[in-house]
Structure formats: structure tokens, C-alpha cells
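Field reference: sequence -> structure
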Amino acid sequence: AASDVYKRQVDRIKNIHEVNRVGIVFVDPEYTSQTCRRCGHIDKGNRSGEMFKCKKCGFVGNADYLASLNIRDRFAQESIVPVVNGGRRNGVL
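Structure field:
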């Protein structure tokens, strides 16, 4: 199943980081491809394939690129909290 593949990938990444003594932080990607960077509006209809168009303010862009920026911002907001629980932050992963 897809969840088994995901778990194996996460375990492999954790192992590589552990072996190399490098910290790792997982960021919850939930709704990042549906969240408008301009106004913050979240709507499943904001994303259509590779295209993002906000239903509220009309902001347009590449959905994956904008989601990656939202993930980066989420990391930056959370990075002021020390990494605890074996690399888990805020209960994610």
C-alpha cells in the first residue's frame, strides 16, 4: 500500500540522517497546495492539477511551487521550537 511505501521512505531518510548525525524536521504538508499565498484562503477548488487559482482573491500560480513555499513557511514558523521526540515536531510523524 502507499502508506507502506511512505513509511519505508521516511524510515530510510531518518536512518541516513541518523548515520550522518544531521537533524531532521518533518513538516505537515496538509492543505499546503490548497492555501493561497496572498490571502491565506484554503479551498480544495483552489487547485486544479498543476494550476493554482484562489477562489477568493484570484491569485494564480503553479500549485506545486506555491505548496513548496507554504511548506517552507510552515517550517520557518515551527523552527523556533526545539526538535524533540526523536525528530518529531508538534506531533507530526
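Note: The two ends are 18 Å apart (CA to CA).
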